[in-house]
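Thread: Newbie trying to understand structure tokens

Hi all, I'm a second-year student working on a class project, and my supervisor (Dr. K.) asked me to get a predicted structure for one chain before our next meeting. I've only ever worked with sequences, so writing a 3D structure as a token string is new to me. If someone could post the tokens and maybe explain what I'm looking at, I'd be very grateful. Here's the chain:
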Amino acid sequence: MSEAKRLLVVSNRLPVTLTPGDDGWHARASSGGLATAMEPILKERGGLWIGWAGDDGSLAAEERDRLLDSASQGFSFVAVDFPPGEGPAFYTGYSNRSVWPLFHVFPSRMDFEPGSWRDYVNGNRRFADRVAECKREGDLIWIHDYHLMLAPAMLRERDAGVRAGFFLHIPFPPSEVFSLLPHGDEVLEGLLGADLIGFHTHNHLQNFRTCLLRILGIESTLDRVEYRGHLTKLQALPIGIEPDGLTSLVESDETTAGIIRELHREYDGQRVLIAVDRLDYTKGIPERFRAWRAFLKARPELRQKAVLIQVAVPSREDIDEYQDLSSQINELAGEINGEFGTTGWHPIVYLRHSIDRPNLAALYAVSEVAWVTPLRDGMNLVAKEYCACKVDDDGVLVLSQFAGAAAEMGEALLVNPYDEEQVTGAIERALNMPPEERARRMSQLRERVARNHVFDWAERFIKALETVETAATRLPLDLDVPLLASAYRGAEKRLLIFDYDGTLVRIADDPAKAKAPGGLIDSLSRLSSDPRNVVAVISGRMSRDLTEWLGSTPGLLLAAEHGALIRRPGNSEWETLTTVPPPDWKTRIRSILQHYVDRAPGSFIEEKEYSVVWHYGRLDPEFGGWLASELTATLDGLLSDTDARPVRGKRIVEVRPVWANKGALTAQLLSENADARFRLAVGDDTTDEDMFAALDAESFTIRVGRGYSLARFRLADPAAVIRLIQTLGG
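---
Reply by user tm_fold:
Sure, no problem. This is what the structure looks like when written as tokens:
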């Protein structure tokens, strides 16, 4: 077993903060999900954590390093040097006045000054320089969050072979919002220096892909993008928590048990709702307070019988906007408590400070409802922490649909935090939910939180980073035909899968002219008539085309529309692999596609049962490609709430359901033919990459034509493919 590679974690702040005191500087450990996840891996790999220590630049480097060494626990902290005043400017400027509001879709709160961009560039350069000083050959580098989005490309400029990953812990916004960000194109290019970019949700990943297309004109697949000869893997990987620590506090910690008993005494006879947030405008605290006021007005019988405990941890107190928010929340809490409260009861208990883990676990444990309704959030771990503490499964999670956690916590009551009536309705439903439904929902949530913990998240990211392929590894080799033929003849069972257009026949400007020649049909017949062979043609074509051109070939399995419809050997009927009916989203896009036909005479629309295709093969290549990029980006946004996505092929843009892809059908054929020792897949464009990805490293995967591909081998053109088929069938 090879030795684990050393890991360098890079974040804006170290998990240790240096603070001045009357008797000098002190090192104080910072808690948090990232520190919890990284510490055991860094200890195991003997790594480094690189970041800003929070000092003002006046502390001598020797004293700073001594303090950091004293706080280290099995791995080392490395501080990034900032001159006096530059560190805070880097943190509060472009990062938190421009990126933070826009990425959370609050464009009106964006504040940009040209000097803040210079501070951001200089700060990222300082981080990249420090990493370069510390890096050894073979190290893995994991860069975290929005403060350091330029660092991946800066590192790659210094060392093209660096292995660096980046994880974004906040949402990535839609392209129409991101386009407002000054220097947004440079931010995207900075991120593309990473080998792997991680997001919390597929929606965030898709927004990133759309921005690449609309702003940089770069096409991408669902999980990768190539830019200037460098390949970047894209992955949605939601972060978890360390649930066992919280669960054990509730189940077996005496301090926590004492706090729980005290809370039960204090709130005896009351329904307790809990909300825990950082004090930030993205968290929706004023909206929550206003909804609570509306609820108490509508349900007077619950006054003095229900209480909302709001924990708000101060942050960025040196920014005027956050000071204003704090004042607004204080005023709202005072108004509501003054309006409804009595000498013995306040409807809102507002705690404007952080609380330790035993007190937090106790609050979660005694609360019937967790009210987690940020206006926008990358993930929101409070929702998961609450579930981890509900060991009796007696609790209800009310969760914003705009939190990343909503994508994996479907048993919660999901709400739009801007819709006050919907939120108050969810609170009433939560308080009145039958015990058996509470237990069923919470049990499923708690099991998922326990399974998808933070250590699993970290290990999966690092494994993906270790195994991500580089551009050099994705250039297919010229096919060794004798080697393939030898493997073919030595196998008792074989599975052979072919694409059609561009693979078996040349691509024609008019799809109707892509009829299979007689020689091809004869060659396929010889292959498919061999009882040891399972031969399939998986095409984007309509079923009627494949029936006309290849339907008389005995023993041949046909798949139309990328696998949405299949016809098995000996059966004249086509079947679907899903119970989903033909889509209704076609009506949305017909007028748009017709608009592009009108703009580009010579292009045309082809409508299939499950998909629609815009063909532009007759257009000037540059003009056609430009229109295709524009159309793809437009359709991406329009269809975001459906199961359909636009896919670029060779001189086409095809809109089809995500479940209709060649990879899914290939996986099914592999399952049905598990005893096939010889496996072959041949294709020529991006739709065939899913097919290659479904096959293992021992399979013969062949790309027709030049270019990067997941395929192991290449053939020059369809004529070479036919010669190969003839060799095997002879």
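A couple of things are worth pointing out once you decode it. The first strand starts at residue 7 and ends at 13. The longest helix spans residues 114-134. Feel free to ask follow-ups in this thread.
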